[in-house]
Write a structure and sequence with these properties.
Elements (H helix, E strand, L loop, with lengths): L2 E7 L3 H9 L2 H4 L11 E5 L2 E10 L2 E2 L8 H20 L2 E2 L8 E3 L39 E3 L6 E2 L28 H19 E2 L5 H7 L10 H12 L4 H5 L3 E2 L4 H9 L7
Antiparallel strand pairs: 1-3, 2-3, 4-6, 5-8, 6-7, 9-10
Length: 269
Amino acid sequence: MKVVFKPVAASSDELALSILLSSPKMRSDSRNCAVPILDVVDIPGNDERVLMVMPMLKDIYDIPFRRVGEVVEMVEQFLYCLQFLHENNIVHMDFCRYNLMMDGSRIIPKGWHFFNHYTHDGTVSGPRFEWNERWTVRPVQYYLIDFELSRQLQDTSTQVVGDWGQDRTVPEMSFDVPCDPFKVDVYQIGNAIKKLTIEYTGLRILDSLTENMTASDPLKRFTAHEAVQHFQKRKAKWSKRAMESRIWIVGTPFKKRFMIQYRGYTPRF
């Protein structure tokens, strides 16, 4: 297995929370898609830091989405994970696009290089980078990473201030005025999904979900449970044909669409 080592403070909440989420009890809940911690390695001569060992995952944006159903599968897993975390009074506080990963082993059977993401062996002159559409190898397992800002609260009424991670558009974000961190989580993942609906054509079916998850007024914003319920009701009405519908990155020329869809053309990154 290819793995990644992340140095963290031995006394950090990140380490404690990551280990907790990797415990058998937490892993028994299928909604838990927090990245699993495979091991914790001590650093010789260093009592302050340790190495967390995690599977090497693929950024969800490295490989383009091709079908509506691919996005729906991803959204479903992250919504369920959000619900799971909040039921356990855990707030991520950085549930944003660059912390959303996937198991790319079936999408890229030949593997990829950790730094040169669009190569198999790390060299530009190496073999052509090949990958499969998510739809052809589904289900794809998605993962949430980076619990550096996360915390487990005593109850859901706790309000906090502080650093909210990547997304600086959260309306109530403040270093001085306390706010509901659970609603911030909802906004962050909702906004990540919303950006996808803007970047791709054909994802309007997610508009009502994202609008309710990113409402500027936290009191009018969905909770994680409400977001899951809304998604489930909507998904029950979506046909298989709708899920198989082709989506495109906004601005993709018609000629390129034709080559990709009908001639099996795979663009090199």
